[in-house]
């Protein structure tokens, strides 16, 4: 079959991976000059660095299968070694390898009532990892019972402030009062994983995949913005705009691998009812700066710090286990939204991060050598209340355009592994067995 994929981010690449495995012909449309989407690689002082998708869980089974087919590049252990600022006090969150210490720490931070409420959900994930995604059976049930409340209402205050908020602002860009219990499983599954990083980064991995398949079954159409998807009696049609003008192309199948808000814009004319439903899925801004300093900023035993709710800086951490002189500053959450916008200059944003983090790390006396910065106005997905019901409604409408499928970070969760799982399910659905 000839299949078009719209979007060259992780979800689009994952869809291409599963289609090529089944020997289909794939055209991958990407509106920008570069693939990778929100993984957003950039050159820092001659080295490719990644903004998103840096941490790869040991339980990322599908993604690791993909990695193996791309010359199997090396991973390095990253671990956690994080501290958190709680009411002006530095609290060491966890120690590498110290399971009992870490468990007691979590119970202490959550408070017993909070821990008792969260624990059955952690247990469900540990028992069956496939439950730790959006719209799994366990979390559908929780959603039906409790999504009339926000996470902030569902859990005790101490648990929210000390444990849940640092998770939601990092993974959803959202405050706990903007998130819902039924979706929290996709976050919890990441919390109970442990992490590694690709030594040579995501940029090289994705490009290895593309170069392996290009000129055979894969055509990469960079700078091709898809502007319409329609169906006539015989086939599906894509309308696109590229630097030379506009054009159309026919396909047997089409997969959208766009974030919900971009897909809503694309479907406004052909499936307006679905477009309106996609607009109910909330995305939140995130700013990320990666700054290289002359000397080490972090000590080895404290490579990151989570800041509290009064700070626009949500966390600052070492870029890699051996990059203690490179800081990844992340800005997300409500306060950050009120201070940082698309117009704020990178220098201002980085200066703000340095002022906040310098009392805890070697920044003030250090020399800044280079930086890269990105601001995603719709960077992290916060989903919606009763998200699984919304997805079911969307699927009923999408089905009407036979041969068209949709995947993305709003289907199974935002992690790279969840994007791979959603893509695999979408390909199964669209192509059939
Ligand atoms: C700051 C940040 C840190 C993260 N860290 C991690 C992490 O450590 N570990 C982890 O597992 N996950 C992480 N994630 C999550 C993960 O990186 C994202 O969920 C994933 O990259 C999303 O990929 P996507 O393909 O679904 O969407 P996108 O990356 O948004 O891809 C969509 C693509 O479609 C293109 N496009 C848009 N409109 C059109 C159009 N009309 N026609 C053609 N192309 C179009 C865009 O240019 C883009 O390339 C992070 C995310 C962010 C933002």
Plain-language structure description:
By secondary structure, the chain is of the alpha/beta class. The chain folds into 3 domains: 2-47 and 56-74 and 199-281 and 384-431, FAD/NAD(P)-binding domain (3-Layer(bba) Sandwich), CATH 3.50.50.60; 94-193, no CATH class; 282-382, Polyamine Oxidase, Chain A, domain 2. Helix content is 36%, strand content 25%. The chain is built from 15 helices and 20 strands. Strand 1, helix 1 (10-21) and strand 2 form a beta-alpha-beta unit. Helix 3 packs across helix 4 (112-127) and helix 11 runs antiparallel to helix 14 (387-398). The chain binds flavin-adenine dinucleotide. Residues 6-12, 29-32, 37-39, 51-55, 225-226, 257-259, 262, 266, 286, 288, 376, 379-380, 408-409, 414-416, 419 line the site of flavin-adenine dinucleotide (FAD).
Reported by name, the CATH topology of the largest domain is: FAD/NAD(P)-binding domain
Q: Give me the side-by-side strand order of the main sheet.
A: 8-7-16-17-18-15-19
Shape: globular
Distance between the termini: 13 Å
Bound small molecules, deduplicated: flavin-adenine dinucleotide
By CATH, the architecture of the largest domain is named 3-Layer(bba) Sandwich
**Proportion of β residues?**
25-35%
The H-level CATH homologous superfamily of the largest domain, spelled out, is: FAD/NAD(P)-binding domain
Major sheet characteristics: 7 strands, mixed
What descriptors fit this protein?
alpha/beta; 3 domains; 20 strands; seven-stranded mixed sheet; Polyamine Oxidase, Chain A, domain 2; 433 residues; five-stranded parallel sheet; binds flavin-adenine dinucleotide; FAD/NAD(P)-binding domain; 15 helices
